Amino acid sequence: MSHEPGESPTKWVADHVRKYVESDGAKGHIFHGAPTLLITTIGRRSGLPRRTALIYGRDGERYLVVGSNGGADEHPLWFHNLLAQPQVRVQVGAEVFEAVARPATSEERPRLWEIMAEMWPTYTGYQRKAAREIPVVVIERNTP
Fold first, then answer.
1. Whole-angstrom distance, CA of residue 92 vs CA of residue 59
2. Whether pLDDT at 5 is above 60
3. Do residues 116 and 66 make contact, with C-beta atoms less than 8 angstroms apart?
4. What is the rounded distance in angstroms from the CA atom of residue 76 to the CA atom of residue 136?
5. Which residues contact 94 (CB under 8 A, 6 or more apart)?
6. Do 100 and 87 meet the contact criterion of CB atoms below 8 Å apart?
């Protein structure tokens, strides 16, 4: 995902999230040609809800997202939050649901990485420049 030159990443993410929420996903679900969801984690330090938009893929009933952080050497804050508290709220289009998020296991990551890199090839470049293994996160809807 990209933003306008000189625009802070925080601003364009906040704008994307706001439009997504205000329109029940009608605006923002597809972003630069890719489907996006909103994930709300609980801040591991603040205890406050933190929401961000992420490109997602599917593996059966499971949703997949990538903790790319633009290829930075650090994991994104939302990833640290879900490690501390894996219960998350997800919005896909107009649908909102509770779920559990976890990093893919070392056994399942290669296959899931391929799914995500195929749908958003930029992830491959991010992985090349990052000094860490970029995590794939598996999101599974809570069952009633």
1. 15
2. no
3. yes
4. 12
5. 24, 25, 26
6. yes
CA distance 72 to 126: 8
Burial of 58-67, coded b for 16+ CB within 10 Å and e otherwise, reads ebeeebbbbb
Domains of the chain by range and CATH? 9-141 (2.30.110.10)
The neighbouring-strand residues paired with 100 are 87, 140
123: β partners: none
Q: Contact 129/122 with Cβ under 8 angstroms?
A: no
Question: Per-residue pLDDT tens for 13-41?
Answer: 888 899 999 999 999 899 889 999 999 99
Taking a C-beta distance cutoff of 8 angstroms, is the pair 103, 35 a contact? no
Task: Provide the β-strand partners of residue 34.
Answer: 31
Note the pLDDT tens digit of each residue in 65-90. Answer: 999 999 999 999 999 999 999 999 99
How far, in Å, CA of 63 to CA of 52, rounded? 15
115 token code pair: 């799914």
SS3 38: strand
Q: What is the DSSP letter of 29?
A: S
Name every residue whose Cβ is closer than 8 Å to that of residue 24 and which is 6 or more positions away in sequence.
93, 94
